[in-house]
Amino acid sequence: MLNKLVYLKMDANEKNKVKEIVLPHSQAKLDLYEKYLLNFLTVLGLTPFVNKINLYDIYCGIGVYKDGNIGSPLITNRSIKAVNEIIKQRGKPLKPISININDIESHKIQNVQRILDSDKIENCTYEYYNTDADKMLQIASARINSYSSKERTLVFIDPYGYSQIHSDKIYSLIKNEHTEIILFLPVMQMYRFKDIALNDPNRACYEDLRNFIFSFFPSNHRIINDKIDNVFEFINEIKGALSYNNRFYTCSHYIERGKGNYYALFFITSNIYGLEKMVDAKWKLDPVKGKGFSQKKTATLFDSQFEQVDHSREIDFLKSQVLNGLRQKILSNVEVYELTLRNEFKQTHTKTVLYELMKMKKVVFCKENGEYLANSGAYYLDYTYFKSKDKKVYFKII
User: Fold this and answer.
1) Which end of the chain is more exposed for a tag (fewer CB within 10 A), N or C?
2) What is the pTM of this model?
């Protein structure tokens, strides 16, 4: 069921169009889901430390739309097939995968089941649910928290609003630290009506938004007491709240539906390697800024020039973050790796930044005690070193 506020802003023709075809902004959402899912399945399918994978699709949709595009449950099936071939080529056994699919509209789940029943995959089991999101989230949470430590789970939550999205429900899914979540939210509507919802508690149509805000943010938080200047700041605040006081790693990916109208995908994980793979997926889809999807505009002769400026601006931001970190203390390769990913950049970006700063004689390699170390050209910004806390080299400002 659509959130009340979103429902009021959307006429009947638009609602039907959303349900019948995959609009560009929806395709952008599905593209990111698929790119990350391929990474997720490949990594877990090959690691010896995981013996089962569980996938949950809380709002699955119709399956195949009138324009021929496919939704998340069929994308999941397609991705599993592709990864299975990779695993077989490497001579490894296929791991069992549990696929759990839900939608509150019975004809949608029936259509998805009909399609997947004729396209089952050997190592997969399929379970179908026809219930509301509250109930499905409870089912998913109970099952996820009963899994063994050798199972890993990905939950895709793509609601028609945000009325059933609350902090305790999300936390219940990820608290075992073996689960990752991709959550889609209509952030522009939420941002636009935030102040009205907070300042007029008697307006029942804003109750869902108030509940969302108060479930994720304490009463002294700036999102409640201060002005948020734009929707991107709003996205960043939600991203921070989803980290649950930095217990989890998070990132966001904005999606432009129309001029000035933005949605966002949020990713939550307890494993920084999962964050690395999501950041990699984001930059593949947006190689200029790594931040999101924008509607295509009329091409001009200056597009490549503008893209270079935008990319340079992003790298300059990363450079400022690295320098800010180094002003506070000497940083190891392990700490710089984490700083890179928390700021949603790839290691290659940070290597470029460090190389430029060293060339400008602003930063040098050093030992833990600050003693100068000759430039070896090796930065050791890799998950392998992070996981083992192998501090091979340090960096400092000079």
Assistant:
1) C
2) 0.91
